[in-house]
Amino acid sequence: MAEEEKKADEATSNKQEEKEKASSQAVVGVEEAKEEVKESIEEAKEEMADLPEEEKKIIDQIENMTVLRLNNLVKAIEKRFGVSARAAQVAVPGAGEGDSGEEEKNSFTVGLKDVGGQKIAIIKVVKALLGLGLKDAKDLVDGAPAVLKEGVKKEEAEEIKNKVEEAGGSVEIK
Q: Which CATH number is 108-173 given?
């Protein structure tokens, strides 16, 4: 009986030592990650040190924007300056040649063209479909015409279109 208790005590002691070892390894891992983040922040600060104060303020403002507001800013810049933030497509000689004819498009962009008279219903649908917060969904709907979702399959694009149109809005699929 005493031997069994001794073995149980040793097993418990070993388990405790393993837990402590794992815990200390986790702490070391966390500390290493913290150091990497600190180094990245320092590198970014050094890169920004050469920028004029006005440009630093602009970067800080952009850094604090929501994704939706940043998306709207990019669109406004594209429109204002006639540029595109999208990567240019390069024509490759011989690409697309063959007997297949025109290939079917498999990536679509769903855009909200008009809200109509049911703004609240459209906000609810957009919020649910895109997983946005209420404010972000409202801002997106208020900014119509606006892109709801890019790079979606035809079935998903049709589903979004149907739900928004059921709520009273008009949608364009490109």
A: 3.30.1390.10
Task: List the structure tokens of 142.
Answer: 């208020």
Beta bridge partners of 170: 114
Angle formed at CA 128 by CA 124 and CA 134, multiple of 5 degrees:
55
- Average pLDDT value for the chain: 77
> Could you tell me the two tokens for 138?
């409202």
Going from the C-alpha of 159 to that of each of 168, 171, 174, the distances in angstroms are 14, 11, 14
Q: Where are the domains of the chain?
A: 2-64, 108-173
**CB-CB contact of 155 with 106 (8 Å):** no
The yes-or-no verdict on residue 88 having pLDDT over 50 is no
Helix (H, G, I), strand (E, B) or coil at 170: strand
Q: How far is residue 74's CA from residue 89's CA, in Å, rounded to a whole number?
A: 19
Helix (H), strand (E) counts: the chain: 6, 3
Q: Which of 115, 154, 148, 110 is nearest to 131 (CA)?
A: 148
